């Protein structure tokens, strides 16, 4: 399987020719070279980090077929359409195709010991059920087809430790026995340590390398708002983003329908999506959203896994997700193009109560305990008074500073005050109650509630905290847990306990700075769609950017594909920023490979040229070249 004919220069040539990029990102090249050497790979990479390139470039470099196992039909069609736009022979095989279409695809598979034909497929997308549920097809691959690589997308689905376990994925554990010499690459954006180890075990990977990119999505801003009166806030939020695409997640099918209807009554372009709809209706609605015919889709988590739409500018959760893996994956559907995007969640403590029964697995205490722990961590994230990005990254065993500058906590003007005395009261109460009670009981104890057991009313700290509301005491305690001055046990009924950090505060040897609750000022921070991660990019010509989007939409409509498949918003941003005015200039813009240059270079170049002439502007492409040199 080892391939020595693919040098770094050849791999970069394939990247530029088909995808329009001049350099690999992060550890993409190392992953590709590992595959080409014949080894397996376990890849953890955030949504939008470029996972697909890690198997698409090897598919082009290797002789034979790359089989991509994908859980959703929508993902298959989406990626195949994008590959066709980049001049790559690819297809998907599923029940939506006629018998004639399926046979045509089978006829285009590269066969063993046969000369390669230009029309033969390089990538085939298929579901695990179709791949392994029909023995004839797997045997056909094994006996007749030259299989170069298996790519297992959304690999966390194979693990019952993961947040989206799918039993049909377990069958993939047989691939290594059937194709011992064929490398496997397993890819996921969300997997904790237990899940990633389980993926490796279940796929029977032995000779493999593990790659893990940063989980940080710096272009996404994280915000949590109280659920109370959230609809008014939501409408104001959406008014400021009328021309931007977004996903709103709800917990139930009925709530998606109800919210979509209410939004339409307010004049918003919104439709509902959930698994209870007829298949044809789901496909039509998804297609409308992908093609920018509808800006807002209100959905259950049945929508979106694997959706490649790169210009989703915001993801909103009306209900709290069950765990941080799900939250991370769902929010990761925003800003896949690297431009500024937002994740907004409306939270209420009632979510935790509502979800507690839902996450437990009947007959499996260990699994239930794990799911309850994950739910608790999700709630902790929502109640933070410290950097949300730090907590999220720490959850995935990635450590970072205390300030990210792009979450509501870091951007708030709330000031921490010396709350040492309040902290001492909390710690004293926990101690005098012998570390046997939960947060709510300790709050009632401090406030002198009649609900407190008679045996505890005579303790010294009973009623010593009437100066603060229940919400404020709860906020203090949650923040002290986050800071390590308190800890909570696991389980359905967690109790508060002291830590080593508690002692200096109790003894008055340390100052405790905590956040005092105030009414949060309403902020109107509208994300600018053209503001990318690269702050050094010249200013965007907004009128030109809008005109380029209109041109892209016109071309996409004529070709019956989503606009972002023609070019991403990030590519249009570069055009409207660097103002290329020659074919040589435009070839330096990310996204313009040889195939797309031939198809679309001329109309986009003419639009930029006309804009520069009319506004007496000169090209700024030199800024991009200077940036590369640095």
UniProtKB/TrEMBL annotation:
Q: Does the keyword ATP-binding apply?
A: yes
Residues in domain Helicase C-terminal?
230-376
Needed cofactors, names only, are:
Zn(2+); Mg(2+)
Q: Alphabetically, which GO biological process terms does the record hold?
A: DNA recombination; DNA repair; DNA replication; SOS response
EC top class named in words:
isomerase
Gene Ontology molecular functions: 3'-5' DNA helicase activity; ATP binding; DNA binding; four-way junction helicase activity; hydrolase activity; metal ion binding
Q: Where is the HRDC domain?
A: 538-618
Reaction(s) catalysed by this chain, per the record, are: Couples ATP hydrolysis with the unwinding of duplex DNA by translocating in the 3'-5' direction
Q: Which UniProt keywords apply?
A: ATP-binding, DNA damage, DNA recombination, DNA repair, DNA-binding, Helicase, Hydrolase, Isomerase, Metal-binding, Nucleotide-binding, Zinc
Residue ranges occupied by any Helicase ATP-binding domain in the UniProt entry: 32-209
The EC number(s) this enzyme carries? 5.6.2.4
Q: Which Gene3D superfamilies does the protein's record reference?
A: HRDC domain, P-loop containing nucleotide triphosphate hydrolases, Winged helix-like DNA-binding domain superfamily/Winged helix DNA-binding domain
Q: Which InterPro entries match?
A: DEAD/DEAH_box_helicase_dom, DNA_helicase_ATP-dep_RecQ, DNA_helicase_ATP-dep_RecQ_bac, Helicase_ATP-bd, Helicase_C-like, HRDC-like_sf, HRDC_dom, HRDC_dom_sf
Q: Name one GO cellular component term.
A: cytoplasm
| Family per similarity comment | Belongs to the helicase family. RecQ subfamily.
Q: What is this protein called?
A: DNA helicase RecQ
Give the species: Filimonas lacunae
């Amino acid at each position: 399987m080892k391939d020595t004919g693919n040098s770094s220069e050849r791999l970069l040539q394939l990247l530029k020719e088909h995808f329009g990029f001049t350099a690999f990102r992060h550890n993409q090249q190392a992953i590709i070279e590992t595959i080409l050497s014949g080894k397996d790979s376990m890849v953890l990479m955030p949504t939008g980090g470029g996972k697909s390139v890690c198997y698409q470039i090897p598919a082009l470099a290797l002789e034979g077929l790359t089989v991509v196992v994908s859980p959703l039909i929508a993902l298959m069609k989406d990626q195949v359409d994008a590959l066709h736009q980049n001049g790559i022979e690819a297809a998907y095989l599923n029940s939506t195709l006629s018998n004639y279409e399926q046979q045509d695809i089978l006829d285009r598979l590269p066969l063993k010991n046969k000369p390669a034909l230009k029309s033969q497929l390089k990538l085939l997308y298929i579901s695990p059920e179709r791949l392994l549920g029909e023995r004839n097809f797997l045997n056909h691959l094994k006996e007749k087809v030259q299989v170069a690589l298996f790519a297992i997308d959304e690999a966390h689905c194979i693990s019952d430790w993961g947040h989206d376990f799918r039993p049909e994925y377990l069958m993939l554990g047989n691939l290594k026995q059937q194709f011992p010499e064929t490398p496997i690459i397993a890819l996921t954006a969300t997997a904790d340590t237990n899940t990633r180890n389980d993926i490796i075990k279940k796929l029977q990977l032995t000779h493999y390398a593990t790659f893990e990119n940063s989980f940080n999505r710096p272009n996404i801003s994280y915000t949590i708002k109280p659920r109370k009166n959230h609809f008014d806030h939501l409408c104001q939020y959406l008014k400021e983003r009328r021309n931007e695409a977004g996903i709103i997640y709800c917990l139930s099918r009925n709530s998606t329908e109800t919210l979509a209807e209410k939004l339409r009554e307010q004049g918003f372009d919104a439709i509902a999506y959930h698994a209870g709809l007829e298949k044809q209706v789901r496909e039509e609605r998804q297609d409308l959203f992908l093609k920018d015919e509808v800006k807002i889709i209100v959905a259950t988590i049945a929508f979106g896994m694997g959706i490649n739409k790169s210009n989703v500018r915001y993801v909103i959760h009306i209900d709290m997700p069950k765990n941080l893996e799900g939250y991370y994956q769902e929010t990761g559907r925003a800003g896949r193009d690297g431009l500024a995007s937002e994740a907004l969640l409306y939270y209420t403590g009632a979510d935790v109560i509502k979800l507690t029964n839902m996450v437990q697995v009947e007959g499996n205490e260990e699994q239930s305990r794990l799911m309850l722990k994950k739910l608790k961590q999700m709630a902790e994230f929502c109640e933070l008074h410290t950097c949300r990005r730090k907590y999220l990254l720490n959850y995935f065993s990635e450590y970072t500073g205390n300030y990210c500058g792009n979450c509501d906590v870091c951007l708030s003007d709330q000031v921490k005050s010396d709350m040492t005395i309040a902290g001492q009261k909390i710690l004293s109460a926990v101690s005098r109650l012998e570390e046997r009670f939960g947060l709510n009981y300790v709050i009632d104890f401090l406030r002198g509630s009649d609900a407190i057991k008679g045996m505890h009313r005579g303790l010294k700290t009973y009623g010593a905290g009437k100066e603060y509301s229940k919400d404020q005491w709860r906020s203090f305690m949650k923040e002290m847990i986050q800071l390590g001055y308190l800890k909570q046990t696991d389980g359905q009924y967690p109790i508060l306990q002291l830590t080593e950090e508690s002692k200096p505060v109790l003894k008055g040897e340390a100052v405790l700075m905590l956040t005092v609750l105030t009414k949060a000022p309403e902020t109107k921070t509208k994300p600018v769609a053209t503001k990318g991660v690269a702050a050094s990019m010249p200013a965007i010509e907004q009128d030109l950017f809008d005109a380029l989007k209109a041109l892209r939409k016109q071309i996409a409509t004529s070709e019956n594909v989503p606009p972002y498949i023609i070019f991403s918003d990030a590519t249009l941003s570069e055009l409207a920023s660097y103002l290329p005015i020659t074919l040589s200039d435009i070839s330096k813009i990310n996204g313009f490979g040889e195939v797309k240059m031939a198809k679309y270079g001329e109309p986009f170049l003419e639009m930029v040229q006309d804009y520069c002439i009319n506004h007496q502007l000169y090209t700024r492409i030199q800024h991009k070249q200077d940036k590369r040199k640095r």
